[in-house]
Write a structure and sequence with these properties.
The complex is a heterodimer of chains A (about 110) and B (about 110). By secondary structure, chain A is mainly beta. Chain A has strands at about 5, 10-15, 20-25, 30-35, 45-50, 55, 65-70, 75-80, 85-95, 100-105, 110. Chain B is built from no helices and eleven strands. The relative contact order of chain B is 0.34. The chains are: A mainly beta (about 110), B mainly beta (about 110).
């Protein structure tokens, strides 16, 4: 039973570019949450998708957007990349309104140069 | 936003000793807490959780204690092993739901053989 899978594992982008990160939830999970983890810090909540809609959002600018597909997989898009967007981007999947089984993937390491 | 902080950024213990990792949280509305372990290059791994109607919960070699009066959370690891070396985060839900979690900055646990 595969857990949460994220792709790519590493990515280097230039300032001003756009990036798309992908997440496949754990089997049986229907909810996907995205977090940003700067080096040496704890993860910070970006947003959560459930039933293909953004259910909740953290304190991130509109440059950060997402999407959830009918198969529950999700994408995180970041436009107009800044150097400060360099971080580990984590996806967590869960099930239902109470987010049972909150499980993280290994993340995508994004470096903006 | 919510503030979840840890008293010690780094903790070094001898193999076989017990470890105690502490966490302070600021939002008295938080009613669900999770401890995560994060190894280098991996996403956070669930260790144990506790709801606010409890003050203690035990797992395999781990115990979480919750003191709502002083808004303090601790993780006790019995007979610490080299494989326990990692960064440990506490997380709180903060707003009466389970859609997002607020993480502290983490404590690095070093286990000396």
């Amino acid at each position: 039973d595969a857990g949460v899978t994220q792709s790519p594992t590493h990515l280097i982008k230039t300032r001003g570019q756009q990036v798309t990160l992908r997440c496949s939830p754990k089997s049986g999970h229907d909810t996907v949450s995205w977090y940003q983890q700067a080096l040496g810090q704890g993860p910070q909540f970006i947003f959560q998708y459930y039933e293909e809609e953004e259910r909740q959002r953290g304190n991130f600018p509109d440059r950060f957007s997402g999407h959830q597909f009918p198969n529950y997989s999700s994408e995180l898009n970041v436009n107009a990349l800044l150097l400060g967007d360099s971080a580990l981007y984590l996806c967590a999947s869960s099930f239902g309104a109470d987010n049972y089984g909150y499980t993280f993937g290994s993340g995508t390491r994004l470096t903006v140069v | 936003g919510e503030s979840v902080g840890l008293h010690l950024p780094t903790l070094s213990v001898q193999e076989g000793d017990n470890s105690i990792i502490n966490c302070a949280y600021s939002n008295s509305a938080s009613d669900y807490f999770i401890w995560y372990k994060q190894e280098s290059g991996k996403g956070p791994q669930f260790i144990i959780d506790i709801r606010s109607n409890m003050d203690k919960r035990q797992g395999q070699r781990v115990t979480v204690l919750l003191n709502k009066t002083v808004k303090h959370l601790s993780l006790q690891i019995a007979a610490t092993q080299p494989g326990d070396s990692a960064v440990y985060f506490c997380a709180e839900n903060g707003d009466y739901n389970f859609n997002k979690f607020y993480f502290g900055s983490g404590t690095k646990l070093n286990v000396k053989p």
